[in-house]
């Protein structure tokens, strides 16, 4: 056996231990520890990286057939997948508030997103989903509507949707919640019981890279989960089969560069605004570090975060037909996300003014096609339909950022 095979188990143990202790702040220390042990170059190779940490150009993350992180294999692809899955599970095991965002994000979304989306009948992803789930319940008639959510995590979105639907008089439906993480699913089961929708929520532990749908579903939901999927092609094939001719596929997700990096044209504008910020605004709250310049780091290094984000939209276009499509945001992202958004005071006029300037510049660049959107809300079918709901010029095709430029 090659000597490198012997180091795979110890490398995985190091990653697991660091992740258990440090949660979202583990990655920089993990890199430092692996470097001290002389393992960093090997681990990068294991995860499909060049020795300097970069991914080979124009090559998506390597897909793997492995379904279970506990299965040991001498295959580097199997070990890579097992390592990523272990990191993913450990990262979210104690992450209770997965979707919590800074107040400055809500200031931005209420001022710029809500007015744009309200004329189409929704004000947020939850109400977007509910709009289509209600239609599918009506279409199901006397039969119980079957919904499934891939990558449900803590099931908080699904529990809210079930609550909304019941408040609107709907009882005859179930939402299957699929996730690989036992801890998160346990929280989801408890939450569903607490709010009185446990009969509408079906908890299933499943690796959605390997999920095989049983029968047809009236709707498949992927809420902020597609950017964690390595085997997108297989998942989309199964979703198409699951919704058939009458079902619908709903998603809210991130479609920017892999690892949630900025493409060069967007990074240049981010750095332009970054240079205006006083030091206290440059502190990365998630990684607990100061960034003199915005660090355009790849957060798919060792886990599944943003693993194939840039492939999502092109693959959706080739596999589905859109009835609704809303794409938005790019340059604004770093200033309102969890890492730096908490540095801004929503009650401070200067902070709000800065966010307004970035938002307006972002919108202008997006409309001109000079930068491309990094977020989408979409409703899709497996059979041809007309794109009726979108904001020009942001069609699916317009919103794709070519990877070879």
Strand content: 5-15%
Average pLDDT: 84
Q: State the distance separating the first and last CA atoms.
A: 42 Å
User: Mind describing the biggest β-sheet?
Assistant: 7 strands, mixed
SSE topology string: HHHHHHEHEHEEHEHEEHEHHE
Provide the structure class: alpha/beta
- Portion of residues in helices? 40-55%
Number of strands: 9
Give the number of helices: 13
Spatial order of the strands in the main sheet? 3-2-1-4-5-9-8
Shape: globular
Given as residue ranges, the uncertain stretches (5+ residues, pLDDT < 50) are: 1-26, 56-74, 91-99
Q: What Rg is obtained from the alpha carbons, in whole angstroms?
A: 21 Å
Offer a concise description of the structure.
This protein is an alpha/beta fold.
Characterise this structure:
The protein is of the alpha/beta class. The protein has helices at 3-22, 26-36, 40-46, 76-93, 103-117, 125-140, 156-167, 182-195, 232-243, 264-274, 309-319, 333-336, 349-367, and strands at residues 145-150, 173-179, 201-205, 219-223, 248-254, 283-284, 289-290, 321-328, 375-381. The strands form two sheets. The chain has a seven-stranded mixed sheet, sandwiched between helices. Strands 6-7 form a two-stranded antiparallel sheet. Strand 6 (283-284) and strand 7 form a beta hairpin.
């Amino acid at each position: 056996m090659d000597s490198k095979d012997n180091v795979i188990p110890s490398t995985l143990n190091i990653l697991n231990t660091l992740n258990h202790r440090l949660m979202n702040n583990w990655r920089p220390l993990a890199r430092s520890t692996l470097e001290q042990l002389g393992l960093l170059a090997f681990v990068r190779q294991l995860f499909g990286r060049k020795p300097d940490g970069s991914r080979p150009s124009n090559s998506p993350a390597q897909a793997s057939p492995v379904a279970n992180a506990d299965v040991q294999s001498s295959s580097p692809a199997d070990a890579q997948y097992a390592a990523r899955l272990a990191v993913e599970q450990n990262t979210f095991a104690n992450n209770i508030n997965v979707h919590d965002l800074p107040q400055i994000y809500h200031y931005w979304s209420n001022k710029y997103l809500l007015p744009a989306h309200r004329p189409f009948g929704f004000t947020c992803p939850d109400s977007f989903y509910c709009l289509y789930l209600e239609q599918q319940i009506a279409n199901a008639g006397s039969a119980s509507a079957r919904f499934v959510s891939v990558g449900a995590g803590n099931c908080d979105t699904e529990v809210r949707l079930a609550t909304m639907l019941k408040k609107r008089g709907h009882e005859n439906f179930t939402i299957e919640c699929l996730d690989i993480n036992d801890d998160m699913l346990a929280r989801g089961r408890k939450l569903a019981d607490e709010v009185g929708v446990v009969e509408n929520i079906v908890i299933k532990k499943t690796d959605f890279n390997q999920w095989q749908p049983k029968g047809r579903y009236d709707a498949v939901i992927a809420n902020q989960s597609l950017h964690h999927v390595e085997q997108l092609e297989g998942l989309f094939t199964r979703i198409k089969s699951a919704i058939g001719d009458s079902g619908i596929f709903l998603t809210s997700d991130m479609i920017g560069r892999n690892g949630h990096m900025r493409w060069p044209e967007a990074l240049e504008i981010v750095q332009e605004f970054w240079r205006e910020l006083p030091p206290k605004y440059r502190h990365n709250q998630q990684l607990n570090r100061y960034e003199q310049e915005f660090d355009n780091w790849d957060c798919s290094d060792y886990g599944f975060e943003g693993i194939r984000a840039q492939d999502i939209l092109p693959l959706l276009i080739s596999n589905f037909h859109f009835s609704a499509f809303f794409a938005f945001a790019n340059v604004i992202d770093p200033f309102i996300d969890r890492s730096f958004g908490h540095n801004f005071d929503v009650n401070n006029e200067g902070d709000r003014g800065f966010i307004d300037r970035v938002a307006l510049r972002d919108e202008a660049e997006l409309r001109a096609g000079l930068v491309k959107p990094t977020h989408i809300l979409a409703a899709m079918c497996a059979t041809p339909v007309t794109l009726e709901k979108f904001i020009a010029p942001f069609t699916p095709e317009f919103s794709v950022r070519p990877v070879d430029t």
